[in-house]
DNA sequence: ACTGCGGCTAACCATTCGGTCAATGGCAAC
DNA sequence: GTTGCCATTGACCGAATGGTTAGCCGCAGT
C-alpha cells in the first residue's frame, strides 16, 4: 500500500512495527476524535490505517488499551510551555498571553479538544487517570490566573474588585464558553485578539491595550 | 408537533398505549441522557421500560425515531418564559434576570443539557432539525442580550464600551463556560448569585448590586 | 358467536461487534 | 539451508446489535 518506508541506514532503524503502530494510533485518534469511543469500530480503525484488524489486537490487547494509548498521545502536546517567556512580561501581559495561548491552543487542536470533551461528557469512569491529568492541567492554569489577578489587584492596576478566585473562575468559564462556541458554531467563532481585548477591558477598565504588537488577524 | 391534545372527559381515558409509550420515552430519555445514543441499546430501553423490544418498534419505527421523540420531549421545557415579568424591570435587572434564568435552568436540567451537548458534539448530522431548534433558542437568547446591552449603553449606564454583539457573545460564552464547569466539576461549581454579581460588575462597573444582596462567592 | 383491531410479545434474522487463531512472509543468526 | 522470531494476515467465533414476523390476548361492534 501507500507506505513509504525508506530505510536510512545511518539513523535509527525505525522498525516497521513502530510504523504500523503509529499509523494505527493516528487513524484511531482521528476516528475516536470525531465519532467517539463506542461509535468507532476496530474494523474501521483497521481500514483507515490500511492494516488488518488482527494487527491492531497484536499491538494493543483490547480496544480500551488502544483508546488509552490514543488518549496519552493526545495529552502530550497539552502542556503549554509558558514560564520562560512569561518572565519578561508584566502581569497584564502575562494574563493576556495566557488567554491568548488558551484560545490558540483550542483553535489549533480542535479535534483533540472535542475528543476529550466528548469523552468526559459521558464516560466519566473510563480512563480515570486521564481525566485526572486533564484536571491537573486545568487547575494549574487556573492557579496561574488566580495568582496573576491577585498580584494585579495588589498593585492597584486592576479595575475589578471581585475575589481573585471568582474572577479567575469567571474568566476560565468565559474561555471555556468560547471553546464550546468554537466547537459548535462555525470555526469563525473564536477570535483570540478580540477576546484578549475584552478581557483587558474587563480587568483593567476601558483603555488602550497594553502591548499592541498589532499583528493582522489570521483567521 | 408537540401537540398535547388531552381529551378532558370526566376521567382520563389514558389508554394503555399512551402509558407504555410514555414509559418507553421515559426510560429512553434516561438511558440516552447518561449513556448516549450509540451506547444505548433498544433491548436496554425495553428492559428499563418493562416492555418487550418489539413494542418499542411498534411505537417508533426506528431507533432514530425514538431518539427524536425523546429529543422533542426534552426540548419542551426549554423555552424560558421571560417576557411577561421582564416588562416591569429596568434593563439592568432584565440582564441579571436573564443570566440567572440561564444558570438556574442549567442547574435544574443538567442531565438534559448534558444530553444535548453530547449529542451536538459528535453526531452533527443526526437529528438536524433538533439542532436547528436549539440553535434558534440560543440565538434568540443572544439577541435579547444584544438588545439589552445596546439600550444600556445608549442610556450611558454601562461601563463597557465594546460592541454589544461582542459583549453579548462574551457573556454568553461565560455562561456556557459555567455550564460546562458545572457538568464536569462538582455540582457546587455553579453559583447563580455570584455570577450575576460578577456580570453586574463587568457591565456596570464596581458598585452595589442592583437587586440582590452581596453573597460571599463560593469556591 | 364471530370478526376486527389495537396493544403486546417470543422468537427469529441478518449484520456487526470485539476478539482469537492458525498460518505465512521476511529476515537476521547460526 | 535451516531455525526462530517478528510482523502481519484472512478466516473465524460467540455475543450483541437494530429490526422483523407471526401470532397471542382482550374487547368493542355486529
Describe the structure.
The structure is a homodimer of 219-residue chains. With 219 residues, the first copy, chain A, is an all-alpha fold. The first copy, chain A, contains ten helices and no strands. The longest helix of chain A has 27 residues, at 128-154. Chain A is elongated and about 65 Å long. Mean pLDDT of chain A is 77; it is low at 1-12 and 211-219. The structure holds a DNA duplex (30 and 30 nucleotides).
Briefly, what is this?
Chain A has 10 helices and no strands. The first copy, chain A, has helices spanning 16-35, 42-48, 53-59, 63-75, 83-86, 91-108, 110-122, 128-154, 164-184, 192-204.
Strand content of chain A: under 5%
Which radius of gyration of chain A do the C-alpha atoms yield?
Answer: 21 Å
Q: What's the name of the CATH homologous superfamily of the largest domain in chain A?
A: Tetracycline Repressor, domain 2
Q: Could you tell me the CATH topology label of the largest domain in chain A.
A: Tetracycline Repressor, domain 2
Which architecture of the largest domain in chain A would the CATH scheme give at its second level? Orthogonal Bundle
Indicate the low-confidence ranges of chain A by residue numbers: 1-12, 211-219
| Sheet/helix structural class of chain A | mainly alpha
What's the helix count of chain A? 10
Share of helical residues of chain A: 55-70%
Q: Assign the CATH class of the largest domain in chain A.
A: Mainly Alpha
Task: Calculate the mean pLDDT score of chain A and round it.
Answer: 77
Distance between the termini of chain A: 36 Å
Oligomer: homodimer
Main sheet characteristics of chain A: none
* DSSP E strands of chain A, number: 0
- Total tally of structural domains of chain A: 2
Reading the helices and strands of chain A in chain order gives HHHHHHHHHH
Shape designation of chain A: elongated
Amino acid at each position: 500500500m501507500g507506505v513509504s518506508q525508506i530505510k536510512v541506514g545511518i539513523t535509527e532503524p525505525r522498525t516497521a512495527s513502530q510504523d504500523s503502530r503509529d499509523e494505527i494510533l493516528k487513524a484511531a485518534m482521528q476516528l475516536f476524535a470525531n465519532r467517539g469511543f463506542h461509535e468507532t469500530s476496530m474494523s474501521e480503525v483497521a481500514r483507515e490505517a490500511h492494516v488488518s484488524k488482527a494487527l491492531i489486537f497484536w499491538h494493543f490487547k483490547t480496544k480500551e488499551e488502544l483508546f488509552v494509548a490514543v488518549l496519552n498521545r493526545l495529552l502530550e502536546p497539552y502542556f503549554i510551555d509558558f514560564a520562560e517567556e512569561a518572565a519578561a512580561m508584566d502581569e497584564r501581559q502575562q494574563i493576556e498571553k495566557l488567554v491568548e495561548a488558551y484560545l490558540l491552543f483550542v483553535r489549533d487542536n480542535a479535534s483533540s479538544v472535542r475528543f476529550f470533551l466528548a469523552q468526559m461528557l459521558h464516560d466519566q469512569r473510563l480512563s480515570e487517570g486521564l481525566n485526572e491529568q486533564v484536571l491537573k492541567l486545568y487547575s494549574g492554569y487556573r492557579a496561574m490566573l488566580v495568582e496573576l489577578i491577585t498580584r494585579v489587584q495588589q498593585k492597584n492596576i486592576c479595575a475589578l474588585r471581585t475575589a481573585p478566585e471568582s474572577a479567575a473562575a469567571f474568566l476560565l468559564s468565559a474561555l471555556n464558553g468560547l471553546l464550546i462556541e468554537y466547537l459548535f458554531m462555525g470555526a469563525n467563532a473564536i477570535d483570540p485578539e478580540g477576546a484578549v481585548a475584552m478581557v483587558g477591558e474587563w480587568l483593567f477598565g476601558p483603555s488602550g491595550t497594553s502591548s499592541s504588537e498589532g499583528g493582522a488577524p489570521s483567521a
